[in-house]
Design a protein that fits this description.
The chain is elongated. Helix 2 runs antiparallel to helix 3 and helix 9 packs parallel to helix 10. It has 427 residues and is an alpha/beta fold. The two termini are 34 Å apart. Strand 6, helix 10 and strand 7 form a beta-alpha-beta unit. The strands form two sheets. It has a six-stranded parallel β-sheet, sandwiched between helices. The longest helix has 31 residues.
Length: 427
């Protein structure tokens, strides 16, 4: 079986396509149920965020899995398969592992360095475990990806990139509405990016700060932390009319702020849309007094100035990928080594049984010493080849097939055999 990932993101698809492809709860279940019914996908993990839809799979066959996942995505998104294929990417084995580690570290996000992806990956893993669709292969991979993401944020300055994105959006909005200190600011959403925006604006100082969110308790917690005024979700139209700068980042599939939400006569106003799919409908930006600054526009200006931070995280990810692959290849030979040792233990037991029949006069102590001696001889003979085959696997050379052929081991048994216990006295 092999690890593959198939998906689409802002790097391969337009914002319009991503908005059309956005999945709701029903569509997610449709996709995963279809994969359950397929013949070529074992484990499956769906990572569905504001700017990506990705299916990670432990696949029985490569081409069969690609076909099943592609058809499942087409059904779930409602996009024609031919159109969808133009926006999909496929990564296999080493590249699939590297891709997930880059995603978890924030390198593949439109807002480079954002940490919200870690929570989204953690939630995808939890959902996959509960449904039984994620087993040992993808569970181990996802857990390692989470550790890589945590390292990236703890050991590098990649977090500063997201702050730069928010600061850039605020600066461009100020050019349209005037100095921030004189403006009334509305933050829509209470997630990681919205929280970052609220704290950034609060530190800068504004005439008034308001937070609104679908879950009022979340809005209140963020408002308490930033000295803002929390509002319930049904107050959104009135809040939009009363503020000069609106910063929005929710996880909604459709537009949150429509042109119909705004009053007929409007003052000069700026919208910083940090969401993907977009929170602010395109028609809002067509008003003469309104400027909308999108994530795509803001991100293009920030990534180039974050070269050092990005390079540091890429180096970290490269090392982590190499370590993971070495460990995975070494672990892949373990069932064959266990089967070899099990076979050796069976041979030793059979020969010792015959020896006891030929030499019935041996005392218990003498029998134990003979048994220990024979086991030690076999252990010494097996030690070097089993250690070496693990080392070679870590270097990218797989000799497990040769071991099975030389020692006449049944490959079908390697999935169930475990390493036999060593006799007492062996180290």
């Amino acid at each position: 079986m092999s690890i593959i990932v198939i998906g689409l993101s802002h790097k391969t698809a337009s914002i319009d396509t991503l908005e059309q492809a956005a999945l709701d709860a029903s569509a997610r279940e449709t996709l995963l149920t279809r994969l359950d019914a397929g013949e070529h996908v074992g484990e499956a993990l769906l990572l569905d965020t504001c700017n990506r839809i990705e299916v990670y799979a432990d696949a029985y066959t490569f081409h069969g899995a690609v076909t099943e996942i592609g058809e499942g995505l087409a059904e779930a998104t409602g996009l024609p398969l031919r159109e969808l294929r133009e926006n999909l990417y496929v990564h296999y084995e080493d590249r699939a592992v590297a891709h997930l580690f880059q995603v978890s570290a924030g390198l593949d996000s439109m807002a480079v360095g954002e940490s919200q992806i870690l929570g989204q990956l953690r939630e995808s893993l939890r959902t996959g475990r509960e449904s039984g669709r994620v087993g040992s292969v993808l569970d181990g991979l996802a857990q390692q990806a989470l550790r890589v993401g945590k390292r990236a944020h703890a050991e590098t300055d990649i977090d500063t990139v997201s702050r730069s994105l928010v600061e850039r959006g605020v600066q461009q909005a100020e050019a349209h509405v005037g100095p921030l200190a004189a403006q009334r600011v509305l933050v829509v959403g209470a997630g990681a990016m919205s929280s970052l925006a609220a704290h950034t604006v609060a530190r800068t100082g504004v005439a008034g700060l308001t937070v609104i969110n679908r879950t009022f308790d979340s809005a209140r917690r963020l408002a308490d932390a930033t000295g803002a005024n929390p509002l319930p979700w049904d107050a959104l139209p009135a809040a939009l009319a009363a503020h000069d700068l609106v910063i929005s980042c929710t996880g909604s599939v459709g537009h949150v702020i429509e042109e119909s939400h705004l009053p007929a006569v409007q003052h000069r106003q700026a919208f910083v849309d940090l969401a993907l799919p977009r929170d602010v409908a395109p028609e809002v930006g067509e008003r003469p007094e309104v400027q909308v600054f999108s994530l795509a526009h803001l991100g293009a200006g920030v990534e180039g100035s974050a070269a050092d931070q990005v390079r540091a995280v890429r180096d970290l990810v490269t090392g982590e990928v190499a370590d993971y692959l070495v460990a995975r290849r070494a672990a892949s030979v373990a069932p064959t080594v266990a089967l070899l040792r099990s076979r050796a233990a069976d041979v030793v037991a059979a020969e010792l049984g015959r020896l006891q029949q030929r030499l019935p006069g041996l005392s218990d102590a003498e029998q134990a010493q003979v048994q220990l001696t024979v086991h030690r001889v076999v252990e010494k003979l097996l030690h070097t080849p089993t250690v070496r085959v693990k080392q070679l696997a870590g270097e990218g050379h797989d000799y497990t097939a040769a071991l099975r052929e030389l020692f006449d081991l049944d490959a079908r048994q390697t999935a169930t055999v475990s390493t036999p216990p060593r006799p007492e006295g062996l180290e």
